[in-house]
Here is the input.
Amino acid sequence: MLHYGSFYNHFIFSKRSAIPDDRTIDGVNILPLLKQEKTSVRDVLFYYSGTNLYAARKGPWKAHFWSIENEFSSNRKDIKHDPPLLFNIENDPSERFDISNEYPGIIEEIKEEVKIHQENLHPKPSQLEKILK
Here is the structure.
């Protein structure tokens, strides 16, 4: 899995520079991925819409806590899933078959990853909202 935030770290590692320790950097070194030494550089990925966490992926598993109906229309509807929907995206890449009832333990593992992730977040004010006001 790759996240665009990892490109910053990639450029630092490719120049053999040190990652700044005076701020939080949301990224990982993707050099092993680009050198084809690894097929993935992170095991967990979080999917947001704005500041809302909609889904989390761990390995082949993706849990949807929210989904969006009619996303690009004036009738947009956000739908909360409790329990979350669960998909094995290696076997079901189009995420059509919810298998959450079959794998409740996987849902709990992903929820634990979400908890850890959220405990380590350091939200900042939106720079875009400052401009738009």
Notes: Strands lie at 44-49, 52-58, 61-69, 77-88. Residues 18 and 74 are 46 Å apart (CA to CA).
